[in-house]
Amino acid sequence: MNVVVRWFHQLASPPIFDRFTARWAPWCYALAALVLGAGIWQALFAVPADYQQGDSFRILYIHVPSAWMSLFVFGLMAVYAAIALIWRIKVCEILAMACAPIGAAFTVITLLTGSIWGKPMWGAWWDWDPRLTTELILLFLYLGVIGLYHAIDDRRQAARAAGLLAIVGVVLLPVIRYSVVWWNSLHQGQSIRLFGPSTIDASMLLPLWLMVIGTKFWFAGSLLTRARADNLRREAGKAWIVREPQDTAA
């Protein structure tokens, strides 16, 4: 346990954090390309068309992983923000703020793919359905965090203010998750479960899990890349940056 605590303490050092992100971001991107490539091939060529929706159902392989990530990233952002506020760890401030644009992108993809999928299924591009409406509010929260962070000149004060908004906004996540249970909804209920039987055909699950895992690898690579860039901006002019080549990997 002490070894783990010591490792996290060392990682909070900006030079060590820079070397860590430089080393692992390319690996995350490479794994993402490999797993997503396999998932896309399976989704397009190995899975048969749905007996009701035809080939239009294949958009779920983008929609579902993006929707899950839109919630996961916001929750992770709030955790990083809470750690930063409680223990004043600068690296966690950086990681929290690096989450925001990535999570916003996942939320936009979720809303766009949901609209494209909803048009043939519901006959409309948009409906003020509880799940859709709460997901849209999530996008506004992401944009609020991003806007607040860039509205304040002092980076640390900006990160703390935006982090507070993220922590408050995390209460929306269970509302999105259970909106199809609590209210009448056009959106289908939960059909894919981590624990317990899923209601979709087993042949459709393998590419979906590949897309979910690949998306997480891509997120990790993007998070490390954005966090490294922000770390370097904050540390600009420091002796360790001048002394150490930026492509050095520990």
TrEMBL record:
PANTHER family assigned: CYTOCHROME B_B6 PROTEIN-RELATED (PTHR30071:SF1), HEME EXPORTER PROTEIN C (PTHR30071)
Keywords carried by this UniProt record: Cell inner membrane, Cell membrane, Cytochrome c-type biogenesis, Membrane, Transmembrane, Transmembrane helix, Transport
GO molecular function, one term: heme binding
Similarity section: Belongs to the CcmC/CycZ/HelC family.
GO CC terms, sorted: plasma membrane
Cytochrome c assembly protein domain span: 35-187
Functional description taken from the UniProt entry: Required for the export of heme to the periplasm for the biogenesis of c-type cytochromes.
Membrane protein topology class: Multi-pass membrane protein
Record localization: Cell inner membrane; Membrane
Residues passing through the membrane, by range: 27-47, 67-87, 94-116, 136-152, 164-184, 204-224
InterPro entries in UniProt: Cyt_c_assembly, Cyt_c_biogenesis_CcmC, Cyt_c_biogenesis_CcsA/CcmC
Main location class: membrane
Protein name: Heme exporter protein C
GO biological process: cytochrome complex assembly
